[in-house]
Amino acid sequence: MSKGIRKEKRFVNETVCLATSFMIIMLYACITPYEFSGMTGLRRILVVEGVITDSVTTVRLSRSVGLSDRLNDYVYVDNGMIFVECDDGTVSDTSRFAGLGNYHIITGDLNLSRKYRLRILLDGEEYRSEFLQPMLTPDFELSWVKEGDGAKVSIRISTRDTLGQSTFYLWSYMEDWEIKARLLVDSFCIDSKWVFNDIFAPDNRYWCWKTDSSRMFILGNVEGMTGHAITNREIRSFFASNERLSLLYHISVKQHLIRKEAYKYYANMQKNLEDIGSIFAPIPSEIPGNLYCFTTPDIPVIGYVEVSTKSERRQFISAEEAYIESVYNEYDCSIEIPPGGYTPPQCFNTDRYQWVHYINEKWIYNPQCVDCQAAGGTKNKPSWWPTSHL
Fold first, then answer.
1. What total number of domains does the chain contain?
2. Is the pTM of this model over 0.70?
3. Cβ neighbourhood burial of 193 (10 Å; 0-12, 13-18, 19+)
4. Is position 232 within any domain?
5. Is residue 240 part of a domain?
6. What does the DSSP assignment read for 107-154?
7. What are the tens digits of pLDDT across the range 76-110?
8. Do the domain assignments include residue 112?
9. Contact 331, 374 (CB under 8 A)
10. Which residue in 180, 293, 308, 335 has the fewest CB atoms around it within 10 Å?
11. DSSP structure string for 166-185
12. 255: part of which helix (H) or strand (E)?
């Protein structure tokens, strides 16, 4: 183990203990706020997340925050340069920044007989991960079932490493779904003018899409289990009345076979994330990683960069297959009938509402009922989405 990694592990262990002490001090310091003198060292530690994999590798860089900072002060790093280096001396092209701290590096096909590591250039320093040989990730099956008399949809995977490389897995998912406005209107009041709502035009307010992704580490461990197989492991579930299923839902799941050291790192990180904010939580355990600052070994860095090929499966679920319409509505979409008849009011906008003209000569003023963007959707339709409307 290098000097840099040993110092990194000692520093992280000391800082999480300081963090726990600080939380207890703040609990009793109700009159005069107390800032522990060593807490400044907890801020702005580089945090590296990612797996070196085939095709395209995605790495996210961010900075840690102190306990007295607000969560929205969490800082993504946007000025780094990242490379994937092979032990034969070849280096990938430089990374492409994709926003929110994410960097994409084109890695192509990994050579299973070689070793790879990450190199990060940031603020005059160079950070490196440990050289690792790629794990060959097996394929898997992706399926879904309805449970509880159809009230719940459960998305599941089944897999097995037939080569006997490892018993530890890491999964992640991306999901996209289509929504539409609850009511169809023929006009919107925009910039003090009535604008026709053409549902066949690209800027219509009727059809939208939403996207989300896994936020916690999804881990699997079959060590000691007969056959080392995973069967029907649930990785995502929601009620059949969930908006995701109201029209068309899509999920893409990625699987990585990982080493035991990586599993321990992710499991520790997940435990500490779950314990955040609880003064009764146990003292966080040491979080070992495989990154270090090459140019200045005393600078700490948090992260474990695994090297593993990926397997990916996709699944569509239609409303006809799974959706159960809820009797509960988040907001009232009843039609407002203005005094004196059905003539739309004067077209004007305020910060509180926007007047819209309903298609059957009534009008309402709740944009969430008639504008899919006001309901949280976007017009960013995935290029591969199978429906024809925009």
1. 1
2. yes
3. exposed
4. no
5. no
6. EES--TTS-EEEEEEETTEEEEEPPBPPB-PPPEEEEEEEETTTTEEE
7. 999 999 999 999 999 999 999 999 999 999 999 99
8. yes
9. no
10. 335
11. -SEEEEEEEEEEEEE-SS-E
12. strand 248-258
